[in-house]
Amino acid sequence: MSALTLPEIDAVVASARPVATDVVLLTLRAADGSELPPWQPGAHLDVEVQPGVERQYSLCGDPADRSVYQVAVLREPDGRGGSEHLHAHVREGDRLRVRGPLNHFGLHAVPPGGSYAFVAGGIGITPLLPMMRAADAAGIPFTLAYAGRSLERMPFVDELVAAYGDRVSVYTSELGHRFALSTLSGGTPSAPVAVYCCGPARMLTELEQVALDAGWPPDALHLERFEAREVTEPVRQESFEVELELSGMTLEVPPDRSILDVVEEAGVLVLSSCREGTCGTCETPVVSGEVDHRDSVLTPAEQEDNEVMMICVSRAACPRLVLEL
Ligand code: FES
């Protein structure tokens, strides 16, 4: 679904329940009682935490239950203030505007003989919860390695162990247990393993390196980032042009501005949320031209396909890009 067609929902907080230290589980209903738009495991919601301030949270409930959405929010005192505001002010019965769901972390089918390895760091467990339920319902083998600072700060540990038993391994740094990512494998051609990981940037970067060093197949590793990845200098230091095919405009993007800023200033409607390349809301189809992909959403294979780009952070690697805008 294009971001421009994402449903906007006036939601009401049906419950706000602590599920770990500094983690609250919000259950949301449509304010008018209607059925909520469908979603698949891995999807997230844009939540307007304050007027003009949106944050993205993974849906962690049951996709079959169209009456509610559930998101778990970690309070981050050193964050940008969105989670602090939700923890301090949002209570049962409050209204929240949400947009979505949008999914850039979908659970792909594995071939016969295949399995899933889920890896979570802290609050990164949330998108993996519906994935494990789906894998379990489909009878596909899986394991979960769940790492965090302490058990008190890791939501849903007890439920996971109760539901999935020895398929779940829990690692707490407080007790000196550390999960060795290097023990993971992308499997073999006859028994492929699809690895799905969500957690802190350090964990994802390390796992990318493990996959690279071990020569995993390109589609073995699937990552969900909460924080923007570190990027190097843009490929192109000079200005470039963007031709907006649908709007009939050509605009110049200087080195110190994003395509999104320039396009918005020209009065073209583009939905955006994070503006740092992590949510996928500003995804825009590319008609022609080479893109300098600088986002944290698309996989390396998707970036290579050059069919879409995140215009909040990605730039041109050529003098002129043509976009379907
Ligand atoms: S606005 Fe979030 S990726 Fe561009």
From TrEMBL:
Residues 240-325 form the 2Fe-2S ferredoxin-type domain. Keywords: 2Fe-2S, Flavoprotein, Iron, Iron-sulfur, Metal-binding, Oxidoreductase. Residues 6-108 form the FAD-binding FR-type domain. Its cofactor is FAD. InterPro entries: 2Fe-2S_ferredoxin-like_sf, 2Fe-2S_ferredoxin-type, 2Fe2S_fd_BS, Beta-grasp_dom_sf, FAD-bd_FR_type, FNR_nucleotide-bd, MRET, Riboflavin_synthase-like_b-brl. One of its GO terms (molecular function) is oxidoreductase activity. This is Ferredoxin-NADP reductase. It comes from Herbiconiux flava. The lineage of its organism: Bacteria, Bacillati, Actinomycetota, Actinomycetes, Micrococcales.
